[in-house]
């Protein structure tokens, strides 16, 4: 029997240890095999290999909740082995587009700039674009702690769902990050609903996101749970993909990444959503770190006017933004001013927000408040840049209002505590408090009927 493409191979080393690999290429009677655990220490003459004749499958079970696994789905929490209910292909099954349900239920995260201006729908895939040294891990942990469903046609938020689960895959992270997430889940009592895959910087990265998503699909579509999948750091995964591509001597694409990276990332990100006939859902929040934010893009311009920005045109965030339904942008300038969470709402986006907000879902003024806050913040940024050139004395009365709004928006709306859980209705009320800085005639994005109901100070 000849080797087959994508077949799994088991290696037995002379000292008795076993490793596994996958067939990448078949040439007549020879096969090229990628060893998942690395090839160091393998003696080509004394090592035996067995071709299994099957693709890579992972054991899955509802008992995986509350457990900690390594990047190869082996338990590392000193607990017993998991009794498998099923063995599933780690590449999953493609979802028929006709069988998908459009996401229309808003998930409340308790974080104002996300809930009001970049609302996340259940079944959405939305990444966090961050950079080295920014608190993206703290934001992800806060979302895990506080996530709840805003009920349709009711002004209530449901946090106590028995069928809510989190699958967390950490790829290429250091021990400190792994310990942070594990202790955070244990301290807030949610560990029994979390399946944790900890793939450290010295472990292989390639299969971890697929193992995590296969587990999530089992929990969502067979156990009918609502699963939140967090993948960090997708930049580590993409760089591992580049290493494998270089080892196979493939023709490189932009910045050395393989030409098929878009397709490969899509096979991960597209495994989110809702399916007809199943009550479960998979909401995906991948985290990636953008490189090159140490150097300023503007040579000869003073630092306040042109601060360094991460490279959002890098292939990893660029292709991720194409595939996913928006992005949440974590900003270094806000972080340097001690604002937490440092979410810059201007480059942030949620493409499915329009279907998950409004009357009957959140509140009828939600969309209008979001648009007006965006407009006022953008004008405030322009005024701030103009003030740096011409000075505050040259600004008009309206310009000074926008400048006041800018500072209060960042201080009162964006900034909040890591354990502060604001309901969507509290966040909208804070938005109205800020908009009352302006006279009614400057609020051009809000209809008269909504202004009449919500603009007066006694309005609720």
UniProtKB/TrEMBL annotation:
The keyword DNA repair does not apply. Residues 4-53 form the ATPase F1/V1/A1 complex alpha/beta subunit N-terminal domain. One of its GO terms (molecular function) is proton-transporting ATPase activity, rotational mechanism. Residues 356-455 form the ATP synthase A/B type C-terminal domain. It comes from the Eukaryota. GO terms for biological process: ATP metabolic process; vacuolar acidification. Residues 110-294, 307-350 form the ATPase F1/V1/A1 complex alpha/beta subunit nucleotide-binding domain. The keyword Ion transport applies. One of its GO terms (cellular component) is proton-transporting V-type ATPase, V1 domain. Keywords: Hydrogen ion transport, Ion transport, Transport. InterPro entries: ATP-synt_VA_C, ATPase_a/bsu_AS, ATPase_F1/V1/A1_a/bsu_N, ATPase_F1/V1/A1_a/bsu_nucl-bd, ATPase_V1-cplx_bsu, P-loop_NTPase, V-ATPase_su_B/beta. NCBIfam families: PRK04196.1, V-ATPase_V1_B. Belongs to the ATPase alpha/beta chains family. Non-catalytic subunit of the V1 complex of vacuolar(H+)-ATPase (V-ATPase), a multisubunit enzyme composed of a peripheral complex (V1) that hydrolyzes ATP and a membrane integral complex (V0) that translocates protons. V-ATPase is responsible for acidifying and maintaining the pH of intracellular compartments and in some cell types, is targeted to the plasma membrane, where it is responsible for acidifying the extracellular environment. V-ATPase is a heteromultimeric enzyme made up of two complexes: the ATP-hydrolytic V1 complex and the proton translocation V0 complex. The V1 complex consists of three catalytic AB heterodimers that form a heterohexamer, three peripheral stalks each consisting of EG heterodimers, one central rotor including subunits D and F, and the regulatory subunits C and H. The proton translocation complex V0 consists of the proton transport subunit a, a ring of proteolipid subunits c9c'', rotary subunit d, subunits e and f, and the accessory subunits. This is Vacuolar proton pump subunit B. It comes from Setophaga kirtlandii. The lineage of its organism: Eukaryota, Metazoa, Chordata, Craniata, Vertebrata. The gene is Atp6v1b1.
């Amino acid at each position: 029997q000849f080797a087959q493409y994508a077949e799994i191979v088991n290696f037995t080393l002379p000292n008795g240890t076993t490793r596994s690999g996958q067939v990448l290429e078949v040439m007549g009677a020879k096969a090229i095999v990628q060893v998942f655990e690395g090839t160091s220490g393998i003696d080509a003459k004394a090592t035996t290999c067995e071709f299994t004749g099957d693709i890579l499958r992972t054991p899955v079970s509802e008992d995986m909740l509350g457990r900690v696994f390594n990047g190869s789905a082996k338990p590392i929490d000193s607990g017993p082995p998991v009794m498998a209910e099923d063995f599933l292909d780690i590449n999953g099954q493609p979802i028929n587009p006709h069988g998908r349900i459009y996401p229309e239920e808003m998930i409340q995260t308790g974080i104002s700039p996300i809930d009001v201006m970049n609302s996340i729908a259940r079944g959405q895939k939305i990444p966090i674009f961050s950079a080295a040294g920014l608190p993206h891990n703290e934001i992800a942990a806060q979302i895990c702690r506080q996530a709840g469903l805003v009920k349709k046609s009711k002004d209530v938020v449901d946090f106590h769902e028995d069928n809510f689960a989190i699958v967390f895959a950490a790829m290429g992270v250091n021990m400190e990050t792994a310990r942070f997430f594990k202790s955070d889940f244990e301290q807030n009592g949610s560990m029994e609903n979390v399946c944790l895959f900890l793939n450290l910087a010295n472990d292989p990265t390639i299969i971890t996101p697929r193992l995590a998503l296969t587990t999530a699909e089992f929990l969502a579509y067979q156990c009918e749970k609502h699963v939140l999948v967090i993948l960090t750091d997708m930049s580590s995964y993409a760089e591992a993909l580049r290493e494998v591509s270089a080892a196979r001597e493939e023709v490189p694409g932009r910045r050395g990444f393989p030409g098929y990276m878009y397709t490969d990332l899509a096979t991960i990100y597209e495994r989110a959503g809702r399916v007809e006939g199943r009550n479960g859902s998979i909401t995906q929040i991948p985290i990636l770190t953008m490189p090159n934010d140490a150097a300023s893009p503007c040579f000869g311009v003073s630092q306040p006017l042109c601060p360094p920005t991460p490279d959002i045109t890098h292939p990893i965030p660029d292709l991720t933004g194409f595939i996913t339904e928006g992005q949440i942008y974590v900003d270094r300038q806000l972080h340097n001013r001690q604002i937490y969470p440092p979410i810059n709402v201007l480059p942030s986006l949620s493409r499915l927000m329009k279907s998950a907000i409004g009357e009957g879902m959140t509140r009828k003024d939600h969309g209008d408040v979001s648009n007006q806050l965006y407009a006022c913040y953008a004008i405030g940024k322009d005024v701030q840049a103009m003030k740096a050139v011409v000075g505050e004395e040259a600004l008009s009365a309206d310009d000074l209002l926008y400048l006041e709004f800018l500072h209060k928006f960042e201080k009162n709306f964006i900034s909040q505590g890591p354990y502060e859980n604001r309901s969507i209705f509290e966040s909208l009320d804070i938005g109205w408090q800020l908009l009352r800085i302006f006279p009614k005639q400057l609020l051009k994005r809000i209809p008269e009927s909504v202004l009449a109901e919500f603009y007066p100070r006694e309005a609720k």
